[in-house]
Amino acid sequence: MAPYASDDSTTGGEADERQSRRRKAARYVVPVTVIGVAAATIGLVPALADSGDPDLPEITAQQLVEKIAKSDVEQLSGTVKITTDLGLPNLGGLESGLLSGAAGGGDGSSADPTVRLTELASGTHTLRVAADGPDRQKLSLVENAAEYSVIHNGKDVWAYDGTSGEVYHGTGPQSPKAEKEQPPTTPKDFAEEVLKAVDDTTSVTVDGTARVAGRDAYKLLVEPKQSGSTVGAVTVAVDAKTGMPLKFTLVPASGGSAVVDAGFTKVDFSRPAPSTFDFTPPKGAKVTEEKDAGKEFGKAAEEHARKGGHTPESGKDLGEGPDGMKTIGEGWNAIATFDTGGEGVPSGAGAGGGALGDFVDSLGDKVTGRFGSGTVFSTRLVNALVTDDGRLYVGAVTKDALVKAADAGK
């Protein structure tokens, strides 16, 4: 998006006031994009049609969950297809710029996983994955003629952008970028996230069998018992032999196509060649070290603070949640809430007027209640309410559930 042009007919004071309103409006686009990324860590839908239902021995839901938990697959290679349809508004590329800026990508590396792997939050993507134990993994995002790869080999974590030729490097098996900020990418990753939420508010059953990537599998069906959740059902196709999830499907309560789709199209459980995990930066490539990227983020945060924005508290881990965050409700209806320190979402003239004001208004729905008034930003899975006094309520729940939570908070 092109920068806003100044109006030569305005005074300096008027121009400053208009720029201030625009900055306030722009920062509220962030919840919409962040919701999309957060939703990508909750679930996914079938990439391939099942090729027949195999005849397998009967198994209970508890036995199948235990089979997943006991799965000890550490060596594999294969191809995963992911399709995500969160119903996010088309921001014309603005969302990628905001996420890049939030991660320090504006002055960092195009190979930074923090920025690049957010692409999985929308559209269809093909990944090539390989693993050889806890110390060696590789993920390649195949886009047109170029690839983007993240390679973990021993103490090194490398990321390479084949389009720009840039390289990103972190060290240590517990690299913060690799461990904290990399979203789930395989059916197993997503299944583990959902199974953590299984409690008395959840129905878990076995829903037949399937053939996935040429292998026999059981289908585990996970459904919320509560009303008010935007999650309709989750299906996990579990390899009958190894217990490893091969496909993950999440369908929204509103119906229609699945929200996301992660499934193996090919999988091989033999050990990958050791050379799979070798990486040497190409000659002349720009190499950004993780610690240097952190410095760039710090500089950007300081500059943002000087211009009137907020900056994280000194010494606070940027991966941690906001101070004062609370959880309302339980199970699938849990809602996270905290004070943003802002003034709610500006609209119309408050957002700069004209086309910009109309754009901000189009991103959310105005709501009212005992709490006052606010704006709800919606996707097909995760919704967020920002009240006019700066309180945020977010969860995989309906708009009405958010309003009730805000009313109860008063």
What does this molecule look like?
This protein is α+β, with helices and mostly antiparallel strands. The chain folds into two domains: 110 residues, TATA-Binding Protein (2-Layer Sandwich); 233 residues, outer membrane lipoprotein receptor (LolB), chain A (Clam), CATH 2.50.20.10. It is 25% helix and 31% strand. The chain contains ten helices and 18 strands. The strands form two sheets. The chain has a twelve-stranded mixed sheet with strand order 7-8-9-10-11-1-2-3-4-5-6-12. It has a six-stranded antiparallel sheet with strand order 13-14-18-17-16-15. A hairpin with a 7-residue loop joins strand 10 and strand 11. Helix 2 crosses helix 4. It is globular, with a radius of gyration of 23 Å. The N terminus is likely disordered.
The arrangement of helices and strands along the chain is HHHEHHEEEEEHHEEEEEEHEEHEEEEH
Q: What percent of residues are in strands?
A: 25-35%
First-last Cα distance: 39 Å
DSSP, total strands: 18
Share of helix among residues? 10-25%
Topology:
Layout (H helix, E strand, L loop, with lengths): L11 H16 L2 H11 L20 H10 L4 E10 L9 H9 L10 H4 L6 E10 L3 E8 L2 E8 L2 E6 L5 E5 L4 H5 L6 H9 L6 E11 L2 E10 L6 E9 L5 E8 L7 E9 L18 E3 H17 L19 E3 L6 E5 L14 H10 L1 E5 L2 E7 L4 E5 L3 E5 L3 H10 L2
Parallel strand pairs: 6-12
Antiparallel strand pairs: 1-2, 1-11, 2-3, 3-4, 4-5, 5-6, 7-8, 8-9, 9-10, 10-11, 13-14, 14-18, 15-16, 16-17, 17-18
